[in-house]
């Protein structure tokens, strides 16, 4: 929490300081630009006016003849010109006053304070070039700095000559003025930054202090201490927040007091309800136990009655089934006799059919053997064809070799030999396929003969089985006649017993119905008792849960101090 308070104060301070910093930088930049604009628009033009006045006065006072003679090499003229330039330098307060010439190259005609520089080579600056190229005009240099200091120069060309005159003035004051403006801007910026930090810190303290009080009070409230009130005398939003928080704390006190009283009442009531519910539950358990015993007794009686009725029903059903079965068996025995006669006739026919099948199989076996022999003969022919095709192929190869030796004359014969070779290869391939097919036919024929022999043996066995079945059918006919007579006698007796069993079964079913109704009513009473017991147990559980929650609420309310 301390980190949060410190961070908030730093953020507010940094915000105000940042705003002041940006504003101070903008203000300093504007002040600097405004000062430089004043220098460029007023100070430097005034300086240039002074330079222009001095150069014009120098131009008026300078004897052009003296300058021309000095340029021509007159020592006396040079001495007079140098003395004049030194005098003008003193009067104007200039650094240098000079006359420069330019023919093939630029050179010094005369330079104040430097007699030894006579006719020394010199390089024209851009301003000097403009003055030389534009007679009658005054040209200025920019403010520049060299190893001798800061200067500004003015030039003009002497009319009717190849010479220019120039004046170098000290411009150190311009540099000092710039440094002064920059220093003032920096000082203003620093002062505004310090003021911004101080103002931000002061405002942050005024804002953070009430917030810290609110945080401390909320920590007490969170810990359950509602005895104190927060006191903030501000009339702003923080004061309104403190008032609202005090009002909320008071409402919490009232609510906790009411909850405490209610929880005490709930605890007392839940204890009374719990005792009553326990007593009612015990009584319900006793009633359920008694009802279950009654249900168990009725269930035993009902089950015994059902078993008796079921037994009588099964007996009656069995007797009825026996009677019906006896009648059905008698009827079926007659049908069985008829079917046995029919079966015997069919068996005799089957014996004749089996003999016919055996004769057909014998004839088919002979035919298949003949087919196999003819297939073998065809195989020998195919082998002969294959041998002939190989010889033809060899002859065609020899013919092709001889045709190649004959050259141009044997070309036609080589073509014929090649065609003969191809036909021989095709014949050999076809013969090979035929041989494969014949081999497969031979194998199938052999398998067919084996299958037919096996089928003939099975037909012989089937004939014997059918003859035995015919004898069995004759024995069955004799037995069926005896059984039919005995079943008719049993059927008459079982019909009388079935009538008596049905009467007894009807009485047993009435007894079962009465016992079932009694058992169902007892079960309904038991189910109702179980439902009442479950309801009482749920009520007791709910009362215990209510009691536990009431105690828990009392424990939690005890953490508050009001």
Automatic annotation (TrEMBL):
Residues 276-512 form the Methyl-accepting transducer domain. It is found in: Cell membrane. Its main location: membrane. It comes from the Bacteria. GO terms for cellular component: plasma membrane. Belongs to the methyl-accepting chemotaxis (MCP) protein family. This is Methyl-accepting chemotaxis protein.
